[in-house]
Design goal:
It is a single chain. This protein has six helices and seven strands. The chain has about 190 residues and is an alpha+beta fold. A hairpin with a 4-residue loop joins strand 6 and strand 7.
């Protein structure tokens, strides 16, 4: 049974969603491959616990999540999966193809639980905080139009992590890699 969609139909009974656009699938696969490579590069400058880059098949988003080791307060109304997923403080970043409340393909970043002041943080580069969704967004179309798309995404990831980790009071000295390798992460050249 599909999840994260309205009015799901069991796969073996679904005769409504039976089209296949191979060119669109190939383009999406290429975007996911590029995002995976960027997320892996971004992951190299963090010493704390970090997830592998992972794919959510229900919403088709790709993400990577950093944890600081502190337990988080229980999420109100969370089901068992959400309760486990957010049992510890985390900062997550990812890419989704335009589903959900935003409606456009975008890179995203958020902290859970959301710290006070995060929505007031301004980014130096492209993208910003979306109050409706409670997270930072960087439109994929803006990335595509940028002269250096990879640099734009890496800067977005670094800036949103910096804003969230600062607002959350994370132990940056212990968690962040601050040597020449850490610095090279944001330099895609």
């Amino acid at each position: 049974m599909p999840v994260e969609v309205q009015n799901p139909i069991r796969f073996e009974r679904d005769t409504v969603h039976d089209s296949y656009d191979s060119a669109a699938v190939r383009r999406f696969w290429h975007v996911l491959g590029q995002a995976d490579r960027i997320f892996k590069r971004f992951s190299t400058n963090f010493y704390g616990k970090i997830s592998p880059v992972h794919f959510f098949w229900g919403s088709f988003d790709l993400a990577v999540t950093r944890f600081n080791g502190r337990t988080a307060p229980p999420r109100p109304g969370a089901d068992s999966i959400q309760a486990e997923a957010y049992s510890h403080e985390c900062i997550s970043a990812g890419f989704w193809p335009g589903n959900g409340g935003y409606g456009k393909a975008a890179f995203y970043a958020y902290a859970a639980p959301v710290p006070a002041g995060l929505s007031e943080c301004k980014l130096r580069g492209i993208g910003g905080f979306n109050r409706d969704l409670g997270e930072f967004l960087l439109d994929y179309d803006d990335v595509r139009r940028a002269p250096e798309p990879e640099r734009v995404v890496l800067e977005f990831l670094a800036e949103t992590y910096d804003a969230a980790a600062t607002c959350c009071g994370w132990d940056r000295v212990s968690l962040d890699r601050r040597d020449e390798i850490g610095a090279a992460v944001t330099d895609p050249s």
